[in-house]
Amino acid sequence: MKQKAPWYYLALLILAGEAVFILPFVLPRVFRSTVLDVLQIENFEWGLATSSYGVVAVFSYLLGGPIADKYAPRKLMAIALWMTALGGFVFATFPSKKVLQWLYAYWGFTTIFLFWAPMIKAARVWGGTDSQGKAFGLLDGGRGLTGALFGLLGVFIFSLFLGDSIENATLADRQESFKYVIYCSLVIITIIGILTWFFMKSGVDEKEILLDRISIKQIGTVLKLPAVWLLMIVILCAYVGYKITDILSQYANEVMLYDQVKSAKVGTFIQFLRPATGVFVGLIVDRFQITLWLVFSFIATIIGGVLFATGIIEPTTTALYFLSVVVVAVGVYAARALYFGVMQEGKIPLVLTGTAVGMISVIGYTPDIFAGPAYGYLLDMPKEEELGFQYVFWMLSAFALVGAIAAIQYHRLYGKQNA
Predict the structure, then answer these.
(1) Which of 29, 124, 24 is nearest to 84 (CA)?
(2) Which of 3, 174, 268, 357 has the CB geometry, 3.0–4.6 Å to 151, for a possible disulfide?
(3) Could you report the per-residue pLDDT of 187-205, keeping only the tens digit for each?
(4) Residues of the chain with pLDDT under 70
(5) Comparing C-alpha atoms, which of 353, 405, 359 is closest to residue 229?
(6) Residue 115 contacts residue 71 (beta carbons within 8 Å)
């Protein structure tokens, strides 16, 4: 299949691909300390409440995958964006832990069931037969840039309404300022949904990429592919790493002793590393062996994780802190940019992309269930905050090692074969 989709197709795919996750993930990542503050909850309580997202998402991946092989991606994605934006009204009330749990369960449905597999399939369509690395690298890099810009906008709005007296601001002041951040986000998400519905058309005959129906036989065909099972492990381990970016701004606040605005700026800086990594990888990886680059991404994650886990990063080692942040983030974001880009190398049929993504994601994204509570428990367990962070990064390093082993096996099976 030749690449026929216009440039604005990819632009809208990028905007939609990150906008749907702004409320449940990007804002809490950039404003980690602030979110815990305005909701009046601890790390473990937050992880437990938001783990409902992962529980619902597991079923949404499984059931939503085949739908992406039957209906046009733009329509499914637009509906998902509008439904996700509605949840912002509940988030802006700073709900109780119980309501927060139900809200994240709702978001687990809206952001996955009608969105995730269609987004991956749309990226494969844009990439054609010889630009898969470029497609997924630019998609993830572009999504990272979108998230970073949302983060910058959020920090600007938050600091604008909070004023200069950050340290003296009351809980009510912080809640009011963060409420404006949420409302601004949901308006933008709604607008992006409208643009996606009307303008994200690939130019490819939909009969080439859609099925009239999904049969049990086709699902069985997907499950027989070794690439599918290896990608389950690769994505699971890489996603544990991605979840670690949620607490890097918190590390800046609690260990490096930055205030909430400065730590949010660190979170935004981390967000900008994602587009830089994704675009760089996307532009060069198709010239080399994409599966080998996936191995290198896990190695970088291990190195960065061990630097944090050893406890040598302290308030006096600012340069080492930022170096370690860069190494971890680049490793994690490179893995994200590549792990769906190797589907073609693994001979997964385009027409069954949605079904395959659904099957892979059932296992691959289970960190949405356990990573948050696990990180929260490890952070809250010891009296010394620094020790809790060390436990978290040892956990990251262990998963990255397993991911590296699975990536090496994938490279042995498919990378050398396609070289």
Answers:
(1) 24
(2) 268
(3) 999 999 999 999 887 666 5
(4) 1-5, 129-130, 164-167, 202-215, 383, 385, 416-419
(5) 359
(6) no
- Cβ density class 321-350: b for 16+ within 10 Å, e for less: beebbbbbbbbbbbbbbbbbbbbbbbebeb
| Cβ atoms within 10 Å, residue 83 | 19
Hey, what are 191's tokens? 């607008």
What is the pTM for the complete model shown?
Answer: 0.77
For the chain, the maximum distance between any two Cα atoms, rounded to a whole number of angstroms, is 63
Q: Which pair of structure tokens corresponds to residue 152?
A: 């910058």
Q: Is the dihedral of CA 75, 77, 83, 88 positive or negative?
A: negative
Q: Which domains does the chain have, with CATH numbers?
A: 7-200+213-418 (1.20.1250.20)
Amino acid at 204: V
- Alpha helical stretches, state H, 71-225: 73-91, 97-110, 116-127, 132-162, 171-199, 216-223
The tokens for 299 are 């190695």
> Which DSSP state fits 210?
-
Cα–Cα distance, 123 to 109 (Å, whole number): 21
Show the DSSP H helices in 27-113 as ranges.
27-30, 32-39, 43-68, 73-91, 97-110
Whole-number Å distance between alpha carbons of 81 and 299: 35
For the chain, the distance separating the N- and C-terminal CA atoms, rounded to the nearest angstrom, is 21
**Cα separation of 362 and 355, whole Å?**
11
Burial class for 315, CB neighbours closer than 10 Å (0-12, 13-18, 19+):
exposed
